[in-house]
């Protein structure tokens, strides 16, 4: 059976552990677990040296994504976020081929031509994710944005976060039908509501994996899928390897799943 590339968002190991150990300490673990991509988390950086992390990834043949909490569009500004250029540079310094950001406050007055001009000057590719906010985590603004991206031919793809749609009480399947053709990176997490009403990310069960198969049917076959749910246990290598193996086989063509 063919396997597809799996990424690990380092936030999956918990903010406290990642800040304590440093993101470099997880590179070898991910390679041994069979992951093909590592997602650096800007908000969890402490004293890491970008060149050292970039070298570690290259040495093990991994790819890297740089995840930033930056919003692409800020309220009241037609041009992209003033920090975008520096953040693209930072992603490149960490050896990342992609920068993942949130949509932010996208409106019809935003200047996509200036965004295009910036991206033409930079080798790092931009991924825009649906977050958990009202302005950047709903289907409608994402549709409007990617329709313009498609019309203008901008080199931007979508990070589709399966769980985040629930923060705005929207259907991930509907989102996949409407946005799936734009997706290049799939953030995977199951979501449950605690007794106090708070939504929390969880590892997937069998029902979640089945639903994720349905979502993938609306996207380009073989896209990278990322763990963004808790990876916890006494043996992190075993825990990680099992989740990588599970995600790597999702989205097989129907012919490969058929019994003969």
From TrEMBL:
Highest taxon of source: Bacteria
Keyword Transmembrane annotated: no
Keywords for this protein: Isomerase
Residue ranges of every copy of the Xylose isomerase-like TIM barrel domain listed in the record: 28-228
Any one Gene Ontology molecular-function term assigned to this protein's record: isomerase activity
InterPro entries hit by this protein: Xyl_isomerase-like_sf, Xyl_isomerase-like_TIM-brl
Protein name: Sugar phosphate isomerase/epimerase
Organism, scientific name: Pseudomonas rhodesiae
Phylogenetic lineage: Bacteria, Pseudomonadati, Pseudomonadota, Gammaproteobacteria, Pseudomonadales
